[in-house]
Write a structure and sequence with these properties.
Length: 505
């Protein structure tokens, strides 16, 4: 299969494969210093990069500056994580002649880097999920050489960001071949199919993500593929929440829907509210005067226009905020937010046309009659999502409301369908922190046990290896008894197996 690559792609993949052993063997502190150097260089080039990004994507400089900061913070977080070593999941079982099942050998297990990774970058986060975004940071922290397939929506920014990374890694002494950028879907697919590539990641549409995931799975030697593909992020607002802080809910909702022209994977697509329209005036007031915002590219603009027309044309749908979209001479769409409402009965009737993601500043209020089993609505209408949100009244949040068991059932139902359950907030604005979970069941992601944000993201690009009766001289440092790296080690002492389960009798 290597013969199908162009000469340039062959050079890149061969260099990444050659760099893999050396990069995996770099001392954690040296790798951490290199990753921090990349973060520092990214921030040092901030002004020039943001100017290119604003021109190519139409996103505001304020938004892009925030993304640069977020990207640098994530790189630094991962640098600290790889030195701390918890992501290696080190487990040590010393030899035990009195083991419950017979003599136990000395067994020591840890996670090691997979090898070269290809990351298909996103259009809507030109820093945070692009060339140096979460997937790239995780692969580099794991010790995997990285090939990034640039997004066609911001090619100039991709080249400039890649140059920052390549120069910083080289200056930090990392092996040649650790980082490359390529362009074009065909090139990306060809690299994904190459047997020297050991994992893939992607942020984008369900259709393209499924295609790439199927390619990864159909290889003679299948590889893991981590795609973030689509989400509508349902929200549930109780009557008590509306009564106690409806104005704040309305304002927060509009801000979440309209921010970055609604081009966020965590945008609230559906909000289930008590029937009666109590939030509508506040929503209309909050949306009044919202300036139009350019969508990322003409293709996304046309798709949004079609999706918006389908939703507005569905029987029973009524506009709370009409919004709109216009096209300029370059074919770019400029949108203002559209928010509509529909009864639960009409939502059920028009479900097939309404339920799919509208990638842009549009969201749907679903009016729910009193006494509706909210927990039952989750599996009825939704597949996997990145997030689910509840807005509660004070007594409900304190667990003292009479119907608290119904709300607990709703939380349990959401937990089966999403990766992150929020209370009294909005799903846009994903905190970059160790415990974050940014993934969910299909089609939110192609692998529902993974995350692309938070320190657990690193383990996607590692695999386990156990060493049995290995002399100390041949053990990885993390598995040695003297533990020179100081990483956490889970040790099962000899003799303890005789007492397993005893305390439960």
């Amino acid at each position: 299969m290597t013969g199908t690559l162009s000469p340039e792609l062959e050079r890149i993949v061969a260099a990444a494969a050659a760099a893999a052993p050396a990069y995996a063997a770099t001392a954690p502190a040296d790798r951490a210093r290199a990753i921090v150097a990349v973060a520092d260089a990214l921030e040092g080039a901030r002004s020039a990069l943001v100017e290119i990004g604003a021109r190519e994507t139409g996103l505001t400089e304020a938004r892009l500056n925030g993304e640069v900061t977020r990207t640098a913070v994530q790189l630094r977080l991962f640098a600290d994580t790889l030195v701390a070593g918890a992501h290696l999941d080190v487990r040590i079982d010393p030899a035990d002649p009195d083991f419950a099942l017979g003599v136990r050998p000395d067994l020591r297990r840890l996670l090691i880097p997979l090898g070269p990774v290809i990351n298909f970058s996103a259009s809507n986060f030109p820093f945070a999920f692009s060339v140096l975004g979460g997937d790239s940071a995780a692969a580099l922290a794991a010790g995997c050489p990285l090939i990034v397939k640039a997004h066609s929506g911001h090619p100039e920014l991709s080249d400039a960001t890649a140059r920052v990374a390549i120069d910083a890694l080289a200056a930090a002494g990392m092996p040649e071949g650790v980082f490359y950028l390529i362009h074009g879907r065909e090139a990306g697919v060809a690299v994904l199919q190459d047997p020297r590539i050991k994992a893939g990641s992607f942020t984008g549409s369900i259709g393209v993500g499924r295609l790439l995931a199927d390619i990864a799975a159909a290889r003679p030697a299948p590889i893991p593929f981590f795609g973030e593909l689509g989400s509508v992020n349902p929200v549930f607002v109780t009557a008590a929440a509306v009564a106690e802080h409806g104005e704040a809910i309305a304002a927060g909702y509009v801000a979440s829907v309209s921010g970055s022209a609604g081009q966020l994977c965590t945008k609230p697509g559906f909000v289930f509210v008590p029937e009666g329209g109590a939030l509508e005036a506040g929503i209309a007031a909050a949306a009044a005067g919202t300036p139009e915002h350019r969508l990322l590219d003409p293709r996304i603009s046309r798709s949004y226009e079609e999706r918006r027309s389908t939703i507005l044309g569905t029987p029973g749908v009524r506009a709370v905020v009409e919004g709109g979209i216009r096209f300029d001479e370059q074919g770019h769409g400029w949108a203002t937010p559209t928010i509509v409402t529909v009864s639960l009965a009409d939502f059920r009737a028009g479900h097939a046309g309404l339920i799919h993601e509208a990638f842009g500043p549009l969201s749907i209020l679903v009016e729910v009659p009193e006494g509706t089993d909210l927990a039952a609505l989750v599996p009825e209408f939704f597949e996997g999502n990145l997030s689910g949100t509840l807005h509660l009244g004070a007594a409900e949040a304190a667990g003292t409301a009479e119907h608290v068991d119904e709300l607990r059932a709703l939380v349990a139902a959401l937990s089966q369908q999403v990766g992150r359950v929020l209370f009294d907030g909005w799903s846009t604005g994903v905190a970059v922190t160790p415990a974050q979970q940014h993934g969910g069941p299909w089609p939110a992601t192609s692998n529902d046990s993974s995350t692309s944000v938070g320190t657990a993201a690193i383990t996607r690009f590692l695999r386990p290896v156990a060493y049995q009766n290995a002399p100390a001289a041949f053990l990885p440092e993390a598995l040695r008894d003297d533990n020179p790296l100081g990483v956490p080690q889970t040790i099962s002492p000899a003799g303890e197996s005789q007492g397993w389960g005893g305390r439960w009798r």
